[in-house]
Give the backbone structure.
Amino acid sequence: MSERILIVEDEPEIARLIEFALTREGFSTCHCADGLSALQVFKDRQPDVIVLDLMLPGLDGFAVCDRIRQMSNLKDPYILMLTAKGEKIDRVNGLCAGADDYLIKPFSLPELVARIRSLLKRSLRQQQDLVYRTQHFEVNVDRCTASQNLDSGIGRSLELTTLEFKLLSTLMSQPQRVWNRTQLIDRLWGNDFFGDERVVDTHVARLRQKIESDPTNPKYIQTKLLRS
C-alpha cells in the first residue's frame, strides 16, 4: 500500500503541482484548502504525512499542527510545514507546535519529495515492541504509550505530545548518558532540522511540567553545566 499524504494548501495552483509530483512518485494524495477541513480529513483518512501550509483560512497551520498532535488516539503523522514565511521565529514556532520539518516557499518539487521520503525513513516510530523501563517510568515505543510510577506507588499514564514522547524515549534509551542539544536535535528531527537549537529547551521544559513534582527543581531530567 502506498503511503497516504494529506496536502493542506489554499493556493490551488501550488496544491495541484504538489499533488501531481507526489502522485507521480507513487504516493496516495488528498487535498483540502483550510484548517478546519484539514482536521476532519485527518480524522477520516489518517495520513502518513501531512504537507501543511502555515497561512490558511480559518485555523492557521500552527493551530492545525497543535490540534493534530493532541489527538493521541489517532495515527501520528509526520508533518512538513510549508510556508512563505522564512523568519527564524516562524521556523521555531512551527517546530514547537509539533512539525517534523519546515520548507520555505518558493521550493522545488524534487526537494519536497526528498524531504517526505526522508521523514518516512525515520526509524523511531517504526521500531517494534521496544519498551524502555526504569524505576520511575515505562515507555512502549511501538504503542506510543508512557507511564510514570509515582512515589506513592501508584502508576499513571502520561499524556505527551509526539515530540515530548520522542524526547522521553530518547532519554530513557540511555538513562545515564548526558545529551547535548545537537545530539537531541539529531534524534528528534534528524539531519533536516532548521532553526534555533534552543527549541530543545522548550520541549524539555514542557516535559518537566508533566513528570516533575517541582519543575524548577527537577529530579528526573537534570541539566549539567559543562566546564570548558
The mean pLDDT is 85. The first helix runs from residue 12 to 24. Residues 59 and 139 are 33 Å apart (CA to CA).
